[in-house]
Amino acid sequence: MKEIAVIDSGIYGLLAAWLLSKNHKVTLYENAHYFGGHSNKVKLDRDGKEVAVDTGFIVYYGIYRL
Protein backbone atom coordinates (compact mmCIF):
# COMPACT_ATOMS: atom_id res chain seq x y z
CA MET A 1 0.00 0.00 0.00
CA LYS A 2 1.43 3.35 -1.06
CA GLU A 3 0.84 6.74 0.57
CA ILE A 4 -0.41 9.16 -2.08
CA ALA A 5 -1.16 12.88 -1.89
CA VAL A 6 -3.90 14.36 -4.08
CA ILE A 7 -3.73 18.12 -4.39
CA ASP A 8 -7.00 19.96 -5.12
CA SER A 9 -10.48 18.75 -4.30
CA GLY A 10 -12.24 19.68 -7.52
CA ILE A 11 -14.30 17.08 -9.34
CA TYR A 12 -11.27 15.21 -10.67
CA GLY A 13 -9.27 15.54 -7.46
CA LEU A 14 -12.14 13.98 -5.51
CA LEU A 15 -12.51 11.26 -8.12
CA ALA A 16 -8.79 10.48 -8.07
CA ALA A 17 -8.69 10.39 -4.27
CA TRP A 18 -11.71 8.10 -4.09
CA LEU A 19 -10.42 5.68 -6.73
CA LEU A 20 -6.90 5.58 -5.27
CA SER A 21 -8.21 5.11 -1.73
CA LYS A 22 -9.49 1.66 -2.66
CA ASN A 23 -5.91 0.34 -2.64
CA HIS A 24 -3.77 3.08 -1.10
CA LYS A 25 -3.61 5.52 1.79
CA VAL A 26 -4.64 8.89 0.33
CA THR A 27 -4.30 12.37 1.79
CA LEU A 28 -6.36 15.08 0.06
CA TYR A 29 -5.06 18.65 0.19
CA GLU A 30 -7.25 21.68 -0.53
CA ASN A 31 -6.38 25.36 -0.20
CA ALA A 32 -10.00 26.58 0.01
CA HIS A 33 -12.19 26.14 3.08
CA TYR A 34 -14.46 23.70 1.21
CA PHE A 35 -14.21 20.69 -1.11
CA GLY A 36 -15.57 20.54 -4.63
CA GLY A 37 -13.70 23.20 -6.58
CA HIS A 38 -16.03 24.96 -9.00
CA SER A 39 -18.94 22.72 -8.07
CA ASN A 40 -21.66 24.85 -6.60
CA LYS A 41 -25.41 24.71 -6.29
CA VAL A 42 -27.72 27.68 -5.77
CA LYS A 43 -31.46 27.66 -5.17
CA LEU A 44 -33.63 29.90 -7.33
CA ASP A 45 -37.31 30.69 -7.16
CA ARG A 46 -39.20 30.00 -10.36
CA ASP A 47 -42.91 30.77 -10.23
CA GLY A 48 -43.00 30.04 -6.51
CA LYS A 49 -41.15 26.74 -6.88
CA GLU A 50 -37.59 26.28 -5.61
CA VAL A 51 -35.22 25.07 -8.33
CA ALA A 52 -31.64 23.92 -7.66
CA VAL A 53 -29.13 25.04 -10.29
CA ASP A 54 -25.63 23.59 -10.47
CA THR A 55 -23.52 26.63 -11.36
CA GLY A 56 -20.19 24.82 -11.55
CA PHE A 57 -20.97 23.25 -14.89
CA ILE A 58 -22.24 26.45 -16.48
CA VAL A 59 -18.56 27.13 -17.13
CA TYR A 60 -18.52 24.15 -19.49
CA TYR A 61 -22.00 24.27 -20.99
CA GLY A 62 -22.71 27.99 -21.37
CA ILE A 63 -25.98 29.66 -20.46
CA TYR A 64 -28.64 27.55 -18.83
CA ARG A 65 -32.38 27.79 -19.35
CA LEU A 66 -34.93 27.29 -16.61
Would you give an account of this structure?
With 66 residues, the protein is of the alpha+beta class. The protein has one domain (3-61). 21% of the residues lie in helices and 33% in strands. The chain is built from two helices and four strands, in the order βαβββα. The protein has helices at residues 11-20, 58-61, and strands spanning 3-7, 25-29, 41-46, 49-54. It has a two-stranded parallel ribbon with strand order 1-2. The protein has a two-stranded antiparallel ribbon with strand order 3-4.
Please give a handful of descriptors for the protein shown:
single chain, 66 residues, alpha+beta, two-stranded parallel ribbon, two-stranded antiparallel sheet, 2 helices, 33% strand, elongated
Summarize the structure.
By secondary structure, the chain is an alpha+beta fold. It has two helices and four strands; from the N terminus they run βαβββα. 21% of the residues lie in helices and 33% in strands.
Biggest pleated-sheet summary: 2 strands, parallel
Order of helices and strands: EHEEEH
Oligomeric state = single chain
Q: What's the overall average pLDDT, rounded?
A: 85
DSSP strand tally: 4
Helix content: 10-25%
Radius of gyration: 16 Å
Spans of at least 5 consecutive residues with low confidence: none
What percentage of amino acids are in beta strands?
25-35%
Number of helices: 2
SS class: alpha+beta
Give the count of structural domains.
Answer: 1
Tell me, what's the shape?
elongated
Strand order of the largest sheet: 1-2
Q: State the distance separating the first and last CA atoms.
A: 47 Å
